[in-house]
Write a structure and sequence with these properties.
Shape: globular
Largest sheet: 6 strands, parallel
Strand order of the largest sheet: 1-11-8-7-5-6
Helix content: 40-55%
Bound molecules: nicotinamide-adenine-dinucleotide
Number of helices: 10
Structural class: alpha/beta
CATH topology of the largest domain: Rossmann fold
Number of strands: 11
Length: about 280
């Protein structure tokens, strides 16, 4: 059984990205730039944004955080996005979610130039991904995809089961697996016989937000199990998969923490560089 080391895979990816940034700098005399808009004082968002900035700077990207109080009006945020859309030094724009209730998520996401949409949430990018065209891919499913491909480069014909249908995780994950010619089942809170669905999986990706939902007898021998869940419990952070039980039958499994999490930020950096390269053509 392989415990998938997301920390190491992410560190290797960041190293490759750093080399790529150095080469782009030599060739074009400029570096990709990432601007993050942070609204309010929500502690987890502040930590995520600080980590994103630190990782971006470590690989040589230009990084900027635009901060607003949680009372900021929607118009101010939209005008900032329009300004960043026009700014040639900004390759990627990310608005840290969740937003305060008085700001419309959809309006904000729609305002970002799809070519600078490093989160891959803009409808153009969602459509491009589902049509099989080039697009920004949401960072967490992209990270899961890279981890799966490291273990099993040829996914053609495999049975993949995705738990959760969020726009952030489940839906884009399904598209990525379909593109690899997997036969994909996407499940959700209304799915009947979830255990039976899971038992069919060669690849199981779980993004639900329920601690240890997936038990040992839900997974057949030889399955690759990717646990996206991050749940705070009395016993610390746990995933959506019961790691101790499931690791007995899985071929490979991501731990929580140390699995998918580190890949998310590394993929954000990757997406920023991709946006920069696309802006050159
Ligand atoms: P979400 O709440 O938007 O979506 C959860 C999905 O799970 C929904 O589609 C819902 O239908 C489904 N669901 C709920 N109960 C279910 C059940 N009993 N059986 C099957 N499906 C069920 O959540 P999200 O934003 O996709 O996040 C999911 C988890 O992933 C959370 O724990 C979150 O913290 C974590 N997460 C981790 C990362 C990372 O970098 N590792 C990034 C984003 C989210």
């Amino acid at each position: 059984m392989i415990i998938i080391d997301g920390k190491k895979t992410a560190a290797d990816l960041r190293l490759n990205l750093k080399t790529e940034v150095d080469n782009l700098k030599k060739k074009f005399n400029k570096v990709p730039g990432l601007t993050v808009i942070l609204i309010g004082e929500y502690a987890p968002s502040k930590i995520y944004v600080r980590n994103k900035e630190k990782s971006a700077e470590e690989i040589g990207l230009k990084s900027e955080i635009v901060k607003y109080p949680k009372t900021v009006d929607e118009k101010t945020v939209l005008e900032k996005i329009y300004e960043l859309n026009q700014d040639d030094t900004v390759s990627g724009i990310l608005v840290q979610l969740p937003l305060p209730k008085h700001i419309d998520n959809k309006k904000v996401i729609d305002a970002i130039n799809p070519r600078k949409d490093v989160d891959g949430f803009h409808p153009n990018n969602v459509g491009n991904l589902s049509s099989g065209y080039k697009s920004s891919i949401p960072c967490t499913p992209l990270g899961c995809y890279l981890l799966i491909k490291n273990i099993e480069p040829n996914l053609s014909g495999k049975k993949a089961v995705v738990l959760g249908r969020s726009n952030l995780n489940g839906k884009p994950m399904t598209q990525l697996l379909l593109k690899e010619n997997c036969t994909v089942t996407i499940t959700h809170s209304k799915t009947k016989n979830l255990k039976e669905e899971c038992l069919k999986a060669d690849i199981l990706v779980v993004a639900v937000g329920i601690p240890k939902l997936v038990k040992g007898d839900w997974v057949k021998k030889g399955t690759i199990v990717i646990d996206v869940g991050i749940n705070k419990t009395d016993k610390g952070i746990v995933g959506d998969v019961d790691f101790d039980e499931v690791s007995k039958s899985a071929k490979a499994i991501t731990p929580v923490p140390g699995g998918v999490g580190p890949m998310t930020i590394a993929c954000l950096l990757k997406n920023t560089i991709e946006c920069f390269k696309r802006s050159l053509v």
